[in-house]
Amino acid sequence: DIVRGKDLYLGNKKQNEIQREKEKLQENLKNIFAKIYNSLNDDGAKKHYGGDPDFFKLREDWWYANRGTVWKAITCDAGGSHYFRPTCDSSDSQGPSMTPSQCRCRDDRVPTYFDYVPQYLR
């Protein structure tokens, strides 16, 4: 959500603070994606992503292309961890089973990506 620019968390709301944490993070992400945009060599890609000062479309596309890798990076140290409910197809035809390792099914498939579930439902 943060990478895609769709995070609902409002950050630190201290009245004395000039910038909230989220605003600082969003500014850093704009700078990062501006560098990615500036490194694009294809004029068609630059035209496609141009005109958006916050680079939301580029951020969305980057997330779509990299979310599987990001998921693995987040869960690689979650050995033996399971989802909160059975989500993998079991081979015995008795219904879903728990994820056996690092929140992935045996075929290394992620049962679901929570990034498209509304934040308040996660």
UniProtKB/TrEMBL annotation:
Gene3D superfamilies: Duffy-antigen binding domain (1.20.1310.20). The gene is var. InterPro entries: Duffy-ag-bd_sf, Duffy-antigen-binding. This is Erythrocyte membrane protein 1. One of its GO terms (molecular function) is host cell surface receptor binding. Residues 1-122 form the Duffy-antigen binding domain. It holds the Pfam family Duffy_binding. The lineage of its organism: Eukaryota, Sar, Alveolata, Apicomplexa, Aconoidasida. One of its GO terms (cellular component) is membrane. It comes from the Eukaryota.
